[in-house]
Write a structure and sequence with these properties.
The protein is of the alpha/beta class and about 200 residues long. Helices cover about 40% and strands about 5% of the residues. The chain contains 7 helices and 4 strands; from the N terminus they run αβαβααβαβαα. The chain has a 4-stranded parallel β-sheet with strand order 2-1-3-4, sandwiched between helices. Strand 1 (about 25-30), helix 2 (about 35-45) and strand 2 form a beta-alpha-beta unit. The protein is globular, with a radius of gyration of 17 Å. The relative contact order is 0.18.
């Protein structure tokens, strides 16, 4: 029989949630949800960080930028070509000065979001000791793992936001929620297999 403890364990693993702490920078893995940039702008205005790094070019799964998700296309109505361009516009329209935004617009998936952000930081000589990650709540664990790999000495604090009605309290109640969360659970295994083998020096 299926045990609710299984649901609880999956929830605790996938839905990483930290309280915001004052940090050097806010990282935004690529996305097209306005709430991501709005939340990051709120954290900026509240003084949690002085820099924000939106990341994302065009997804490797798409030939064109998908458009603004979950409404507000009337507010964010630019002819966006990348996640970075979109998120930068959201940030600016929510009170973040362009001088505080360091964009990365070449990445096509979450791993690149993390490692290209590291390159952008290194190219500018940033000495980052702590950072906030603003990401979808069901994407939190994978984002954290990838940014931990890219920034191994940086203290990372995950500040998630909910989308598509998928939350830590309700994901297991809908087919969409189950598919997305268990999909993330699978990716947290198969996408890191080679990295772990390399780290442990396991030969094929």
């Amino acid at each position: 029989m299926f045990n609710n403890k299984i649901i609880d364990d999956i929830t605790d693993y996938i839905f990483v949630t930290d309280k915001p702490e004052k940090s050097d920078i806010i990282f935004l893995p690529g996305g097209s949800f306005p709430s991501q940039g709005e939340y990051a702008a709120e954290l900026y205005r509240e003084g949690y960080a002085s820099l924000i790094m939106p990341s994302g070019g065009l997804s490797v799964k798409r030939e064109a930028w998908p458009g603004v998700k979950e409404g507000k296309a009337d507010i964010y109505d630019g002819d966006y070509k990348s996640d970075c361009e979109f998120l930068t516009d959201v940030l600016i329209k929510n009170g973040v000065p362009i001088s505080a935004v360091i964009g990365e617009d070449k990445s096509g998936h979450t791993r690149d979001n993390a490692f290209f952000s590291r390159k952008a930081a290194d190219d500018r000589g940033f000495d980052i000791k702590s950072g906030l990650i603003v990401c979808k709540s069901f994407h939190a664990r994978r984002c954290l793992m990838l940014y931990q790999m890219a920034f191994p000495t940086v203290r990372l604090i995950v500040c998630p936001f909910d989308v598509s009605g998928i939350t830590r309290d309700s994901w297991f109640m809908t087919e969409q929620g189950v598919d997305r969360v268990l999909g993330e659970l699978a990716r947290c295994g198969n996408q890191f297999a080679e990295d772990i083998k390399e780290y442990l020096n396991i030969k094929k």
